[in-house]
Amino acid sequence: MLPPFPPSPERSAELRRRFAEEARSERPDLSTLCLLVGAEADGELDEAGLDAAQVELDRLAGLLPYRPGGPQAWAVALRELLGERMGFHGTPADYQRLESSLLHEVLVRRRGLPILLSVVWLEVARRAGAPVYGVALPGHFVVGFGPDEGQVLADPFDGGRVLTGADAELLVAGATGTAIDPSMLRPADPLDVVLRILNNVRAWAAARPERSDVALWAVELSLLLPSHPARLRYERAQLLVQRGEFMAGAEELEAYAEVVSAVDEGAAERVRGEAFAARAKLN
Predict the structure, then answer these.
(1) Is residue 1 predicted with pLDDT exceeding 60?
(2) Which residue in 48, 78, 180, 211 has its CB near the most CB atoms, within 10 A?
(3) For 199, how many CA atoms within 13 A lie in the half-sphere containing its CB?
(4) 74, 125 in Cβ contact below 8 A?
(5) Residues forming a β-bridge with 143
(6) Are the CB atoms for 152 and 135 separated by under 8 Å?
(7) C-alpha span between 100 and 218 (Å, rounded)
(8) 140 - beta bridge partners?
C-alpha cells in the first residue's frame, strides 16, 4: 500500500464517531470535519497534529488587518496575506495528488484543490470576522464576501484573485457550457462542502484501482453525513466486492436493492443479481 497509510481500526472508529457527531451538531465546524477526513486518510495525523492545524488557522487569521473595510477590502486583504505573502495557490498538477484534498497537508504545502484552498480562505477569514462563505460554482469552488447585492468573489486556486462578473461567467461556461445562474452564487452549506471534498477523494481513487482503500473510507465517511445520495450504498457494496469482501458486499447490495425496489423494481432485480454473483464467488 502506498502512503499515506490509514490509521488503526481503533483510531478509525474513534475518528468516524467524532465525524458523525460533528456533522450532526447544530453548527458543524468545517475545519474540524476536514481535519477528521485528513486523519482518516493519514494515520500519522494524531491529536497533536489536529490541534496544530487549528492553531495555524488561528495564527493566519491573526495576521489579517483589523476589519479592513467592506467585502472588496476583505477579499484583497485575504489575497495579499494568503495568496501573495503566504503563497497559497494551486496548479494543474495538484489534481493528481491525494494530499491536495487533505486540509492538514494543504496548510503545510500551501497547495491544493480549489475547494481545499477555499476552506483555508473561509476558516482564516471567518476567524477574523469577515462576511465570508463558500460558493460552489460548477467545477470550480471559490469564496464570496458580502451580501448578494454587493457580493465579491475570489479564487483561492489563483492565489485569491478577485473575480469580475465576466470571470465567474467564464468559469461556469468552461465547466458546464452554459450561462451562470444566480443560484450558483448562493452560500454553500458546510456539509455540502465536505461531501464535495469526499467526492473529489472518491474521484481520485476511482482513477487508481489499487487505492480502493481510499475510495472505501471516502464513501463510508460520506454515508455518515446526515444527507447523502442513496447510491453511495451501492458504490460501497461494489467496493467491498472489488476488495474481496464478497459476503459483506452481497449483503449491502441486497439492502440497496430493497431501497431501490420502491421506485424501480427492474433496477432492484439487477442489483439482486449482482448480490447473487458476489455470493457465488465465495464457493
Answers:
(1) no
(2) 78
(3) 12
(4) yes
(5) 134, 154
(6) no
(7) 15
(8) 137
3-state secondary structure the chain: CCCCCCCCHHHHHHHHHHHHHHHCCCCCCHHHHHHHHHHHHCCCCCHHHHHHHHHHHHHHHHCCCCCCCCHHHHHHHHHHHHHHHCCCECCHHHHHCHHHHCHHHHHHHCECCHHHHHHHHHHHHHHCCCCEEEEEECCEEEEEECCHHHCEEEEHHHCCEEECHHHHHHHHHHHHCCCCCHHHHCECCHHHHHHHHHHHHHHHHHCCHHHHHHHHHHHHHHHCCCCCCCHHHHHHHHHHHHCCCHHHHHHHHHHHHHHHCCCCHHHHHHHHHHHHHHHHCCC
C-alpha cell at 1: 500500500
125, burial (CB in 10 Å: exposed 0-12, middle 13-18, buried 19+)? buried
Q: Which three cell numbers stand for residue 184?
A: 450558483
CA distance 262 to 260: 5
Place of cell 488503526: 8
The per-residue pLDDT for range 93-148, each reduced to its tens digit, is 999 999 999 999 999 999 999 999 999 999 999 999 999 999 999 889 999 999 87
Whose cell is 468573489? That residue is 153
Chain centroid to CA 137? 14
